[in-house]
Amino acid sequence: MQGGGHAVCLGPDIDTDLIIAGRYLRTKDHGIWVSHVFEDLDPSLAARMNGAVIVAGKNFGCGSSREQAALALKEAGVTAVIAPSFARIFFRNAINVGLPAIECSLPCVEGQNVKFDLAAGCVETGGNTYSIRPLSPRMRDILAAGGLIRYWRGRP
Predict the structure, then answer these.
(1) Mean of the per-residue pLDDT values for the chain?
(2) Architecture of domain 2-153
(3) Does the predicted model carry a pTM greater than 0.85?
(4) What's CA 11's distance to the chain center, in Å?
(5) Which segments of 10-150 are extended strands (E)?
(6) 63, 99, 27, 19 alpha-carbon torsion, rounded to 10°
(7) Phi/psi of residue 113, each to 5°?
(8) Alpha helices in 9-147 (DSSP H)
(9) For residue 96, what pLDDT is reported?
(10) Which stretches in the chain have pLDDT values below 50?
(11) pLDDT the model gives residue 21
(12) Where are the domains of the chain?
């Protein structure tokens, strides 16, 4: 799977409540989530998510195990999240909803183009190529299918 987008730089330890605050989880209208992504961190971030690759510090997605955090990012148009490490539950939730979670330490320049190639195991930005922690073939298949449900529906 290949993709990319403009970088949105975030720090370490971004928890799921910062991604989408609990007060918005009572609705199933994902459009509401889209407009409130990262609201408590920086209200201007939601408008920059469409087509974005989030480049963050360590421990992205810590906190509660809510699947809505990964889903809100995907619905907002985020094409991938790159961080040196992820909370394990967030990592798996992201893969399950079809959002690439890429483990890599990457310098970030806001707005700079970031490209990734999961099969080749690399990320490119600023004229440099960085190796990523490889995803299993099954995880890449799940992402290529658009998430776990679509992956299982497409199997014989």
Answers:
(1) 94
(2) Alpha-Beta Barrel (3.20)
(3) yes
(4) 14
(5) 52-55, 80-83, 101-103, 113-117, 122-125, 128-131
(6) 40
(7) -70, 135
(8) 16-19, 30-36, 68-75, 88-97, 137-145
(9) 96
(10) none
(11) 92
(12) 2-153
